[in-house]
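User: Can you predict the 3D structure for this chain?
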Amino acid sequence: MSNPLLTFTGLPPFSQIKPEHVEPAVDELLSNNRKLIHDLLANLSDPADISWDNFVQPIEEADDRLNRVWSPISHMNSVVNSDELRDAYNACLPKLSDYATEMGQNEDLFHAFNNLKNNTQEFDKLSTAQKKIIENALLDFKLSGFDLPEQKKQRFKEIQQQLSKLTTKFEENVLDATHAWSKHITDESLLTGLPDSAKAMAKQMAEQKEKEGWLFTLDFPSYFAVMSHADDSELRHEMYQAFVTRASDQGPNAGEFDNTQVTEEILALRHEAAQLLGFANFAERSLARKMADSPEHVISFLNELAEKSHKVAKQDYADLVNYAKQHHNQDHLNAWDLTYYSEKLREHEYAINQEILKPYFPETKVVPGMFEVVKRLYDINITEVEGIDTWHKDVHFYEIKDHDGKLRGQFYLDLYSREKKRGGAWMDDCMGRNTLADGSSQTPVAFLTCNLTQPIGDQPALFTHDEVTTLFHEFGHGLHHMLTQVDHVGVSGINGVAWDAVELPSQFMENWCWEREALELITGHFETGETLPDDLFAKMQAAKNFQSGMQMVRQLEFSLFDFKLHTEYEPQKGARVQETLDAVRKQVAVIKTPAFNRFQNSFSHIFAGGYAAGYYSYKWAEVLSADAFSKFEENGIFDQKTGTEFLECILEQGGSREPMELFVKFRGREPRIDALLRHSGIAA
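Assistant: Here is the predicted structure, written as structure tokens:
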């Protein structure tokens, strides 16, 4: 029987992909790629003969083919996880890691790329994107240790292999720990304070498990509803403790999926690999491909934001403590009380909360409304396509076309939380825009994944405003990937974009969730169809920067913790994870964290994602996005000229040029921090 992973063209055949197809497909593709590179190098008798067409193009196409097969496998492992798929996925990780290191350390391959770069007659003929791909490749050789002595090369290869296994293990432990815990309740009196929608969701969850009563889980919509609204402090305490101790030595599943040792090993190996390459630490290594030019630059940027925010954050917390004392006779606030009393305070001050807004944000209005927003900005049309093979019945598929009907991109949308699905929200690359040697074009395709509230009964899914903002954020990433006009996959879409600039298009899109003109498009009461009333909009605007100081220092805590962890690592002292986190909290936090809290053990962004020594990118890119959006504030939020400029200067360029160059082209100057401070309500 033929292997669907090796025979498909176009979109992946999800329903046909079985765990037993995975390893044979990857083995065959890796073997083909190795043979191709061997043959290409063997045929290079004269370095002057190397060209894009006879050398780089075939390698790009082979790597792209591998990515197009691995991408659906990796995606399914995140969204429909099973033991069999996990085993197949894990069996391939060392093979892919070996291949990447082997290519990165292939001296003949390096010399071939270097010869092409130095052959000015040939190099000067290339497009900006092609030149960037060659320059990126040469940097990648350096970052793969191609010029290390043989023994160190071997060690570097071993490290990359171990890191690949460990980061996957970290993610698996978080997933397993999240789904290992649930709270089954049969006494309704314990649920006072919870809105009807949260109770209906918990009831539906229980019914799916053939249980009476209500079932709560650590999936975010379920967890957040309890933390925000449950009057029962004990229930909040129990859920909080289960959530913040996931994959650790504490809490209800203590030691069962513990990531403590995994994080120790990851940090030790990253540090060792960085030093093998001649960097002082992993943070320096991380910045080799980012906008920020030194660790000191990043730390001073974060410290500046912390200084400007700390006073506001302390005031936010003092206001919360005073409110809880005065209005609820609460002398002491525990960590599991903060979200609950914050919601009460928001209601008290602004007569608004997430639940009041939910009926106005049904999925049936939000999703088409979001498409209308981008139509007005970029003159593109988005339509659903039926009958596309997907991994789950809730997944929808769409295509993006220009105003003249030309296909620009396609995407899968997987909105709701469910079992066997990784938490959080993300955009991933299914395939990138590419022009093949035969002249045909490959359309970019994205995976857009969220864990939003599911529909309950016959109602459409009703989203909180925070969930809507999350959806817009991921869609911003998707547009960056799909609207690219770069024809070479190595730097088309999100490929090759400096990591601290990659959040610009996503955070930029969030701004429209707060604008009246856009809210007219994305709101409509699920029963009456009425758009968001003026009084609710006014309250929402008034509450926009509610506790923004506390939110800012929380993000800075994550960013500084991540960066210091990778900058200050010393092998003889070990990772000092808790110690580093405690020191950062002492510097920036305004809230005391319980001793049992093990947030770091589920911090997948830095231990299993691409944000190691890079979590600061969210704040860095927020400066860019706030400043970019301020141009729309000046010219009109649906000003088509400004929209076209953003499309042409940022979204269409992919990684073909340096992000600062692109930003300056759009904004007419370098970014300034004041728009972010103004948007956050922190500017004086």
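The longest strand covers residues 407-416. The domain at 260-352+548-615 is CATH 1.10.1370.10 (Neurolysin; domain 3).
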